[in-house]
Structures are given as structure tokens and as C-alpha cells.
From TrEMBL:
One of its GO terms (biological process) is L-phenylalanine catabolic process. It is found in: Cytoplasm. InterPro entries: Glutathione-S-Trfase_C-like, Glutathione-S-Trfase_C_sf, Glutathione_S-Trfase, Glutathione_S-Trfase_N, GST_C, GST_Zeta, GST_Zeta_C, GST_Zeta_N. Transmembrane segments: none annotated. This is Maleylacetoacetate isomerase. Residues 87-206 form the GST C-terminal domain. PROSITE patterns: GST_CTER, GST_NTER. Belongs to the GST superfamily. Zeta family. Its cofactor is glutathione. It catalyses: 4-maleylacetoacetate = 4-fumarylacetoacetate; RX + glutathione = an S-substituted glutathione + a halide anion + H(+).
Length: 210
């Protein structure tokens, strides 16, 4: 497998966690979203992903983009360990939390949006994340065990940790979200979350390395 990734991309990080959890080795091709006016806009990368976004994964003779589509494929083809619970109610909760982050929070504070916000970009990102986290905190109070849904790591957790990292980067006050904070801390102790961390990627700048 070949993963096109950017060290700081939260969408890429979700996929790196899934690959690490499932023990899938891969070659990494860095795509720097800031260099050369954005390497994702090159003709070469557009041929890989017409949406000109990371991540993209070449695997089993196909090329997939969109982090959740990639994770679902990995789950379907390499089901151990499971990232979707067998219990249908828990499975629905996992998908709900993942969608809440992937559709309802992250795109609103994505690089392409922030560029358009100019000087207000930090304030905009803080407001989008805080609004989403208020709802997420409430949801997790009903679903969480050790992790987002019960005591098993799930697709919801793969979305939560990178989003908390975004929140910290934009200096969002995390004190109102004790459940999110607790789950994030527990997940960051797991090896798959450590090795996939933005501070430990081949394309991480020296000053940001762990």
C-alpha cells in the first residue's frame, strides 16, 4: 500500500491510526499542503485524487480517497482488530460520532476555509471547534466507557484524537470538555496513536518532531 499523507492533516492521521492498529505496513508519500503553493494542486497528485486532498491510499489495485471510505475498506478487508462494534446500536453510535467530527467540525476549520477567513481565521476555527465539542461532550457522556463508545477502540476514536490536536493547535480552551479530554489522553497512550502522531512522521519538520 502507498499512503499519500501530510504530517499535520487530521484526515491523514485517522488513516495512519487505522493502518497502525491493523498492522498494515505501507510506503508513505508526503504531500506538503503549504509548499509550492500546495503540492496537492499538482497535476501529478490530481491524477491520484481529483479532489486534491489528502489522504489517498493505493491498495489492492485501487486508489481510495476520503478518510472514512478508506477506513471502511480496511475494516471490510482486514477486520482484525475491529474498528466497528458488532453490536448494531454501538456501531451506529460509532458512526454518528465519526460523522459528527468528520462532517460537522473538521471541514469548517480546514485549511481551504481558513485561507478565506484572513485575519479572523483563528477566531473562526476556535468557534467552529467549540461549537462542535459542546455537542460532542454531551454525546460522549452517554456513549463513552474508557473510549468514545464503550471500552474498545473504534472508528470514532480515530476521528476524535486528531480533532483534539486541531483544537489544541488553535488554542481552544479544553476545560469545558472533560470527557473528550479524558478519552483523548487514554488513546494517546496506545502505540498505534503514538506511531501515527504528526510529531513522528517522515515529513514532520525538525522543530516539530517528538
Amino acid at each position: 500500500p502507498i499512503l499519500y499523507s501530510y504530517f499535520r492533516s487530521s484526515c491523514s492521521w485517522r488513516v495512519r491510526i487505522a493502518l497502525a492498529l491493523k498492522g498494515i505496513s505501507y510506503d508513505l508519500v508526503p504531500v506538503n499542503l503549504l509548499k509550492d503553493g500546495g503540492q496537492q494542486f499538482s497535476a501529478e497528485f490530481k491524477a491520484v485524487n481529483p479532489m486534491q486532498q489528502v489522504p489517498a491510499l493505493k491498495i489492492d489495485g485501487i486508489t481510495l480517497s476520503q478518510s472514512l471510505a478508506i477506513i471502511h475498506y480496511l475494516e471490510d478487508t482486514r477486520p482484525n482488530p475491529r474498528l466497528l462494534p458488532q453490536d448494531l446500536k454501538k456501531r451506529a453510535q460509532v458512526r454518528m460520532i465519526a460523522d459528527h467530527i468528520v462532517s460537522g467540525i473538521q471541514p469548517l476549520q480546514n485549511l481551504s476555509i481558513l485561507k478565506q477567513m484572513g485575519e479572523k481565521k483563528t477566531e473562526w476555527a476556535q468557534n467552529c471547534i467549540a461549537s462542535g465539542f459542546q455537542a460532542l461532550e454531551q454525546i460522549l457522556q452517554h456513549t463513552a466507557g474508557r473510549y468514545s463508545v464503550g471500552d474498545e477502540v473504534s472508528m470514532a476514536d480515530l476521528c476524535l484524537v486528531p480533532q483534539v490536536a486541531n483544537a489544541e493547535r488553535f488554542k481552544v480552551d479544553m476545560r469545558p470538555y472533560p470527557t473528550i479530554t479524558r478519552i483523548n489522553k487514554a488513546l494517546l497512550e496506545l502505540e498505534a496513536f503514538k506511531v501515527s502522531h504528526p510529531s513522528r512522521q517522515p515529513d514532520t519538520p525538525a522543530e516539530l518532531r517528538a
